[in-house]
Give the backbone structure.
Amino acid sequence: MAPLVLIPGLACTAEMFAPQVAAFSPHRPVTIASTLEGGTMAQMAAAILRDAPPRFALGGISMGGYIAFEIMRQAPERVERLALMSTTARPDAPEQTVQRQTLIERVEAGELETLLREVSPRLVHPLHKDDQALIETQVRMGLEIGPAGFTRHQKASIKRADSRPDLPAIRIPTLVLVGDRDPLTPPIRAREIASALPGAHLVIVPECGHASTLEQPQAVNTALEKWLSLPPFS
């Protein structure tokens, strides 16, 4: 049974996968990768590969998906299966880069907590925007990552590669999962990934925004369990 390596998103810690660790760690080794080393997706991927098992199942959410694509470029032979959650294969659009630069400026001006409290409710499904426990979890993770980590994550996201040309070469069991109301990486982006991947399985989670692993943990865990049980490609 392959170990499971999960990569958190931007300004997120291992707490992003707390429901998944609880569900899967009794049955297989589960590691939450650190995104605190390296200033580019390639550097973060190399650091994760350095500490990862020789062969493993890989899952990434949001920015963790960007890093997962980089891992597939650097060491595809080490990845048994792939889960791409709440993410996109596209590079930053110019307007996204402008938005990120504005966020960086605000954080450098000392507004990290204010920004986290402002943005977090916008990332979740409208039904969850008043879920204080969920919002506080997102704020807590961002504060733990800190201003320097937040800025580094944003700059790495701005410079990330276009992963769309690499998709047809990924020939392992792959789950592509997205919330039905994800405002950052909407279902159209997940469909784009799934349509280019041989044998990909697309799951659109109802009543779910961008923070899928925390917003709808049972639905995500069910999808991951099915993915982990898929036979390897021959």
About this structure: The longest strand covers residues 79-85. The chain has nine helices and six strands. The radius of gyration is 16 Å. The chain has a mean pLDDT of 97.
